[in-house]
Write a structure and sequence with these properties.
Length: about 100
């Protein structure tokens, strides 16, 4: 899972840079769907809470790519906050790093 999280972080970091530069953002990446199958350090962490947060995150991440330019930053930050909200419950370690993805 940590490898997948690093890939998702890098992808969102790239999207952030594109948004800030006023560029066209990349297409939604299929890597995100691997959140349902990536191996967790402790498989017992893949519980109903994890699955619910995963679905919310995927929905919010997809919204970034199906929005008009006026709501792009807002929807991007909503997706990043979905990551933070899950990590507040499941694994708090990377929260400081994830917060760096937010667009202020």
């Amino acid at each position: 899972m940590s490898n997948l999280m690093n890939e998702m972080y890098a992808f969102n970091e790239k999207i952030k840079k594109q948004i800030l530069a006023g560029e066209k953002i990349d297409e939604y990446s299929e890597i995100f769907k691997n959140i349902h199958s990536a191996k967790l350090t402790s498989q017992s962490d893949r519980d109903d809470t994890f699955e619910a947060f995963s679905e919310i995150f995927l929905e919010k991440e997809k919204n970034i790519f199906h929005t008009d330019k006026n709501k792009l930053i807002k929807n991007y930050n909503i997706a990043i906050n979905a990551c933070i909200n899950c990590h507040k419950v499941k694994c708090g370690g990377p929260i400081t790093r994830i917060k760096k993805l937010l667009i202020k």
